[in-house]
Design a protein that fits this description.
Blueprint (H helix, E strand, L loop, with lengths): L1 E4 L3 E4 L9 H24 L3 E8 L1 H8 L3 H9 L5 E6 L2 E7 L3 H10 L4 H4 L1 E8 L11 H4 L3 H10 L2 H22 L3 E8 L7 H11 L7 E4 L4 E6 L4 H14 L5 E8 L1 H8 L12 H4 L7 H36 L5 E7 L5 E7 L9 H11 L3 H4 L19 H8 L7 H7 L3 E3 L6 H4 L8 H4 L4 E3 L1 H5 L6 H14 L2 H17 L5
Parallel strand pairs: 13-14
Antiparallel strand pairs: 1-2, 3-5, 3-6, 4-5, 7-9, 7-10, 8-9, 11-12
Length: 505
């Protein structure tokens, strides 16, 4: 039986009646081809590549057949860019891009508790640019004819083909986040919007004449084909576009270019935070948290019901808080602020005002820049054993503001954000625009992948005691493992944290 496992590759689950080894030949061939391509990628991007071979002792194998513990553990430890192949009945081969010797050792240590139980031995190897086997293959050896790939994409059902290509883009984004090497997407569309792929196929044929490196071709809708150009920045992609437009001037064709992470970062740095300025492009659409429509509807239903219940329960507390805020200092009761939401779309964020009006935000800007850049020693307000990454004595905060911040009462108006659909009850905290300006490409996933929330994993597992990178990792863990059960668990733990005022100040 073949079941899809381990990030899109095929893991072969054996049964006692299995006696055919024909599938192993194709798996070995796929493993060898994948490894060759990864070596070429590492050569082009000057990054490291490691492999690991997991071998099972034959006398332990029957025991392994009847449990999925090892496979589940392996799946949890591998990243989305990693791949696993069954080479034969006793061997699994792992391909680990952007991984050095220390990275392989960490993976082996994580799997160590399974070694004795299942009789697993691990042999690893790390390749570098000086490796004698690293001879960059020709483009023809690496890639099929683009026209054939465009034709194949045009024959697939639109919905399925678009989803498949979105997964390719998401994987390419993960590679870029680790290698820091940008990639671009060339978008070829029929100028009249007709569902006619013949001009696109011809454009693909002419594109191949440029000897352009291509690592993916897919459908982006009814009349558009996307072509992934790895290790290609915006300037190089624009030059490819210009040359292609010269070659295809006789075709009814529109050519566009989008680059990751340049386009995503530049749109934020342009400070155009109108609602229509969201990052609606393939790079964002491919990043959204994967979930079924039923689960998305269920999450939205829980958000609406939970926010209504929250407003009903806390309305007396909100009324008292509003009076206290109004009496503490002149200014509005509700503080409205522009935050960056799902897919980079800005929205009006509500809180009870805890600061004096017209306060200078320079203190917070400097703090955020230091936090994101990892200058922890400059902003640590705690100690070596209990670090605290927060502005502990902010002179802008009023006396009432300190109380409502300590008790998290200032967050209650965000139930209205949840009702409007800008936020969820559970999700990453929405950042400020000037925070996003400081982000690295992988940080952006906490903005693009999932709707922001009132509470999240950071609030219950780290809060002000974790570094910014660790906070992002918690947010990414939530977006990849999200479930309604997880949401309810986080909400219950949030209630406990609020009662104990842990990490708040």
């Amino acid at each position: 039986m073949i079941t899809k496992h381990l990030f899109g590759t095929y893991h072969y689950r054996l049964s006692e009646s299995d006696s055919s080894f024909g599938v192993f030949a194709s798996r070995r061939s796929a493993y060898a081809e994948h490894l060759r391509r990864e070596k070429a990628r590492a050569e082009r991007s000057a990054t490291q590549l490691s492999t690991a071979v997991l071998s099972f002792k034959r006398d332990h194998h029957q025991k392994l057949i009847h449990t999925r513990m090892f496979c589940r553990e392996l799946q949890q430890q591998l990243r989305e860019t990693d791949s696993a192949y069954v080479i034969d009945r006793w061997t699994i081969g792992l391909i680990l891009p952007h991984t050095d010797e220390q990275g392989v050792e960490r993976l082996v240590c994580k799997l160590e508790r399974f070694h004795a139980r299942h009789g697993v031995s691990v042999k690893s190897e790390t390749f570098d640019r000086a490796h004698t086997e690293w001879t960059p293959p020709s483009y023809e050896a690496l890639h099929r004819d683009v026209a054939a790939a465009v034709y194949e994409a045009s024959q697939k059902p639109e919905t399925a083909a678009t989803a498949e290509f979105a997964r390719q883009i998401r994987l390419e984004k993960r590679r870029t986040d680790r290698s820091k090497s940008p990639f671009s997407i060339l978008l070829l569309s029929h100028a009249s919007g007709r569902n006619d792929f013949e001009p696109l196929i011809e454009a693909g044929r002419r594109l191949m004449k440029q000897c352009v490196e291509i690592d993916g071709v897919g459908r982006m809708g009814s009349d558009t084909v996307g072509i992934i150009l790895p290790h290609t920045d915006r300037e190089a992609a624009e030059e490819i576009k210009r040359r292609l437009e010269l070659q295809t001037g006789d075709l009814p064709l529109t050519v566009r270019v989008t680059t990751y992470p340049d386009q995503v970062l530049d749109r934020h740095r342009a400070a155009t935070y109108a609602p229509e300025a969201g990052l609606d492009c393939p790079l964002v659409g491919a990043a959204a948290m994967e979930t079924s429509r039923a689960k998305a509807v269920a999450k939205r239903a829980v958000d609406i019901f939970g926010s209504l219940v929250g407003l009903a329960i806390f309305s007396p507390v909100m009324l008292v808080t509003a009076v206290a805020v109004k009496m503490s200092s002149p200014g509005p009761i509700i503080f409205k602020q522009t935050r960056v939401g799902e897919k980079g779309v800005p929205f009006a964020f509500y809180k009870f005002r805890s600061m004096r009006t017209n306060a200078d935000d320079r203190i917070h800007r400097e703090y955020v820049a230091s936090l994101i850049q990892g200058k922890h020693e400059q902003i640590d307000q705690g100690g070596d054993s209990k670090p605290l990454y927060k502005i502990k004595a902010d002179p802008r905060v009023t006396a009432v503001g300190r109380i409502i911040r300590k008790t998290s009462l200032d967050e209650l108006p965000q139930f209205f954000n949840v009702l409007k659909g800008d936020m969820s009850l559970v999700g990453p905290r929405p950042p400020l625009p000037y925070e996003v300006e400081q982000y690295q490409s992988w940080h952006l996933r906490r903005v693009l992948d999932v709707k922001p929330g009132i509470t999240g994993l950071w609030q219950v597992e780290g809060r002000s005691r974790t570094s910014f990178d660790d906070m992002v990792r918690l947010d990414l863990r939530y977006s990849s493992k999200w479930s309604l059960v997880m949401d309810f668990s986080i909400m219950l733990r949030t209630f406990k944290s609020v009662v104990q005022s842990s990490g708040a100040c």
